[in-house]
Amino acid sequence: TLTFILVQLISYTNEITVNKSPDNNTENNSLVRNERFTQNVYTQINDPELNFEALNQALKGYSMLRCRNIMNNDLILTIIDYSKPSIAERFFVIDISERKILYKSLVAHGKNSGVHYASSFSNNKCSYKSSIGFFLTDETYYGKHGFSLRLDGLEKDINDNARYRAIVIHSASYVNEEFIKKYGRLGRSHGCPALPCNNYDNIVNTIKSKTCLFIYYPDKKYMKES
């Protein structure tokens, strides 16, 4: 089954290659094939909490990264869906080979990105905002938040300052159901996608060491420039 899935992914990558032809029918047909592929994956994952469009955009970028051969583990895809409110589980770790969600979790956004929702994003240091787009996870380390995971932003002027900004995945006491019950929302970070302490180590050990992470938000400017 893994060989079959990888063949499909290669086919999918070929389908999303930008078509220089002015033939709109060709471009439209390619878009239809892309959506059918995503629909197939989405149907097999079978979780209504996973946003179809977030998965669609994630698979496009993920497939391109596979062609660049920069991932150490290309069977794991992580999606953070900032179109959802902070009280929702919006962090998804997906096993591409099995087409199933391994982990689903709450995740915080930057305090200057919004209150209940993240809606404003930045690539600037000290903005205290989240960044969107494609990242590679990298090494783990122990810092002021304990066991943490570094991220490298892959998109120029969108998130490529992530390491300079110290945007990492870490656990936080303000990311849990108890905080939501008390305040009606999650706590917020300085821009990091902070996770609950529960099951945190297992999640980080699954996604570390150059796997694809995509932070989704339906921003028209980003979709145009990414």
Can you describe this structure?
The chain is α+β, with helices and mostly antiparallel strands and 226 residues long. Helices cover 33% and strands 19% of the residues. A seven-stranded mixed beta sheet has the order 3-2-1-7-4-5-6. Helix 1 packs across helix 3 (52-68) and helix 2 crosses helix 3 (52-68). It is globular and about 45 Å long. The two termini are 32 Å apart. The model is unreliable at 1-7 and 13-22 (pLDDT under 50).
Summarize the structure.
This protein has about 230 residues and is an alpha+beta fold. The protein contains 6 helices and 7 strands; from the N terminus they run αααββββββααβα.
Helix content: 25-40%
The chain-level structural class is: alpha+beta
Task: Kindly estimate the percentage of residues that lie in beta strands according to DSSP.
Answer: 15-25%
Q: Compute the gyration radius: what is it? A: 17 Å
Mean pLDDT metric: 90
* Biggest sheet: strand arrangement: 3-2-1-7-4-5-6
Q: What is the makeup of the main sheet?
A: 7 strands, mixed
Instruction: State the end-to-end distance.
Output: 32 Å
Question: Could you give the topology of this structure?
Answer:
Blueprint: H1 2-15, H2 24-45, H3 52-68, E1 76-81, E2 91-95, E3 100-105, E4 133-143, E5 146-153, E6 168-169, H4 177-183, H5 200-207, E7 212-216, H6 220-225
Parallel strand pairs: 1-7
Antiparallel strand pairs: 1-2, 2-3, 4-5, 4-7, 5-6
Helix pairs in contact: 1-3, 2-3
